[in-house]
Structures are given as structure tokens and as C-alpha cells.
Design a protein that fits this description.
The chain contains four helices and 20 strands. It is α+β, with helices and mostly antiparallel strands. The longest helix is centred in the last third of the chain and has 34 residues. 16% of the residues are buried.
């Protein structure tokens, strides 16, 4: 990322990590980047201005022991995690989540997990001073309980201390900005690629679509066209196959030769985008429909008998004298609400 002529990048295996969804507001510049577990990385800083700066790095809320002095026009400076005669390599690691009772149920700096911050303030050189230890030595996260809800996340892991040659002094400078309100604040939000993809921050990796024979349905660039006029249509089909799964078209009912010839010129699509077709009747469906109809008729007759009995009981309760009435022996059959004439001619 580059902001106010200051540039920061993260390298992994010698390659710069791709930055996604870069946003700049005021002095803050932030982005997302994909992390890979057990991959070492380093942070590089470039000053494109004629001003001197002091730089501090924080990962997952844990600060590096020492800040870095940045001269004017200084290029590709390593921001390492060190103090005096030692330095600790850093790498992305999978956060260890367990259901053990001894696992931590709270994570320090939980809100800063998955965040690499670089604070930059303007500074004026004063003098060099003898080196004294800062007393800071960042520690790795231990196992955390599954109730913390951070499963699948990555964190920054610190390696063993490595001895280095050191000049033996530090620079004393005067800050013209406050660390709480830095001149530039870079934020790298790192996540596993799968999480970034699920959040819609990165595009999914295009998978080849299988054709009817199980092979790749994509047409080779130099392959001959199977029929005249298909050369222009093939790229559209392939482009659509990269983004959406193929939609199966329902079979159409065979019609007369005249209707078949006319259907080739028109696509019978309804307004909702689906084909308006009549399904074929399969063998055995007529018998099943007849059995279902008979069962429904029997249920209707039973329901009508219950209704007649309930009406008789209701009318008996409304009469002053008890009159015994029997249910009508006449069954009206499949009555659909019409008028039935029971008079004789």
C-alpha cells in the first residue's frame, strides 16, 4: 500500500502479497491480504519523501520491541522484530482451538487478531545514544477454547531468537506527531484465502466445467468449430460457464412438424426465465391417479357422513322436545355443491 508517498508491503517467499479492497480515509490506509499457514513473511518500508520518520509495527495487538528510524528517501527497509543482538522471524500460523478445560477462554487483544499495523510519525534526528534493552519480548498465543469463536483464523507466530551483529547504539529523535494520531496508519487485515472468498473479498478460483462425457466442456482456443456459425457463440458459452453452473433444460414434448419448425426460430421462455413446457406422462401414472382419486372420494364420503351427524345433533339440542332422528340413508355421491332434485316424475 502507498499513502502520502510512504509505501509498505508484505513479502512471502520473495513475492509481494496481493492487496484487496484497499480503502483510504484521512491518515488511514487499509486492505485485506490472504495468509497461508506456516509461511514466513517480512515487512518492507519505503520512504519516497524528503522527510524523516519513525516507524512502529504491531501484529495481533503485540508490538515489536523496537521502532525503526527512517531517513529521507530510504528504500526497501526491513521492519524486523528485534532488540539489540537478536531478531525473531515471523510467520502466519493457524490459531490452535481446542475444547480442553485448560485452554484459555479469553484472547488478549482479540479485536486485533488478524491485523498487522504500521504506525508512522514524522521525526527529527537529535543524537545517537548507547543501546539499552526495551524489555519487550512478544509471546505466541497458546491454545484457546472453542467458545472464543475464532476457529479458522490465522495469527502471527514468532520464531526462536537469532543472534545478529548490532552497532550498539540507538537514535534519539523528536516526534512531531503523536503515536495515537500518526502521520500515516497502515492496516493489513490478513485472513485465510477461504475466509476472504466466503466474505466476497477475493474471487473464487475458476473451476473447469465438466461436459456430458465427464471431460472439460471448455473449447480449446485452436480447435475447429463443430458447425458453421458456432465460432462466435462458443466464447459466450464458455464465459458464462466460468461464472455460473450450466442450467439443465427440460425436455420438450414432441409436436407436429409445423410446430417444430417454428419453435427453432423462437425461444419459448416465460417472463420468469424458465421454459413453458408440458411434461410427458410416464407409464403407470394413470393407474396411480385413478387410485388416488378413489381414495379421495372415499374420504369425502366419510366427511359428509360426519357432517350430517353433527348437524342432526345440533338440531336436536335446539328442540324443546327430544325427537330421535336417524341419519338419512340416502348418499348423494360426489356432491359438488349443485342442486339435487329428489322428486319423482
Amino acid at each position: 500500500m502507498r499513502h502520502r508517498d510512504l509505501e509498505v508491503l508484505i513479502k512471502c517467499d520473495g513475492k509481494e502479497l496481493e492487496e484487496h479492497n484497499i480503502q483510504v480515509e484521512g491518515n488511514v490506509s487499509e486492505c485485506y491480504t490472504a495468509s497461508e499457514s506456516d509461511k514466513a513473511f517480512n515487512i518492507r518500508f519505503t520512504n519516497h519523501t524528503a522527510t524523516s520518520f519513525a516507524v512502529r509495527v504491531t501484529v495481533d495487538g503485540r508490538p515489536f520491541p523496537r521502532g525503526t528510524w527512517m531517513d529521507a528517501d530510504k528504500k526497501d527497509v526491513l521492519l524486523d522484530c528485534g532488540d539489540g543482538h537478536w531478531v525473531r522471524p515471523v510467520k502466519f500460523a493457524r490459531l490452535c482451538v481446542t475444547d480442553g478445560d485448560d485452554a484459555a477462554r479469553e484472547l488478549s487483544n482479540a479485536n486485533s487478531l488478524g491485523l498487522i499495523e504500521i504506525h508512522v510519525v514524522r521525526a527529527i534526528y537529535e543524537k545517537r545514544m548507547p543501546w539499552t534493552t526495551s524489555g519487550l519480548d512478544p509471546q505466541n498465543f497458546g491454545s484457546i477454547h472453542e467458545t472464543v469463536k475464532k476457529g479458522g483464523m490465522h495469527c502471527v507466530s514468532f520464531g526462536e531468537k537469532q543472534r545478529i551483529e548490532y552497532s550498539g547504539d540507538v537514535i534519539q529523535c523528536l516526534y512531531t506527531d503523536q503515536w495515537s494520531a500518526p502521520y500515516v496508519h497502515f492496516k493489513f487485515r490478513y485472513r485465510p484465502h477461504a475466509i476472504l472468498q466466503a466474505q466476497g473479498i477475493v474471487e473464487p478460483v475458476a473451476q473447469p466445467q465438466a461436459g456430458p462425457s465427464g471431460g472439460n466442456s471448455s473449447v480449446a482456443p485452436n480447435s475447429p468449430s463443430p458447425e458453421p456459425g458456432a465460432a462466435n457463440a462458443a466464447p459466450r458459452r464458455n464465459a458464462q460457464a466460468d461464472s455460473y453452473p450450466p442450467r439443465k433444460r427440460p425436455r420438450r414434448v414432441e409436436e407436429s412438424s409445423s410446430s417444430s419448425s417454428s419453435s427453432s426460430a423462437e425461444d419459448p421462455l416465460t417472463v420468469d426465465g424458465t421454459e413453458d413446457v408440458k411434461p410427458r406422462a410416464r407409464k403407470g401414472e394413470d393407474e396411480d391417479d385413478a387410485e388416488d382419486l378413489d381414495a379421495l372420494k372415499a374420504q369425502m364420503r366419510a366427511i359428509r357422513r360426519k357432517i350430517n351427524k353433527a348437524q342432526i345433533r345440533k338440531s336436536q339440542r335446539g328442540q324443546s322436545s327430544a325427537v330421535k332422528r336417524e341419519p338419512s340413508p340416502i348418499e348423494v355421491g360426489d356432491f359438488d355443491g349443485g342442486v339435487i332434485d329428489l322428486t319423482e316424475d
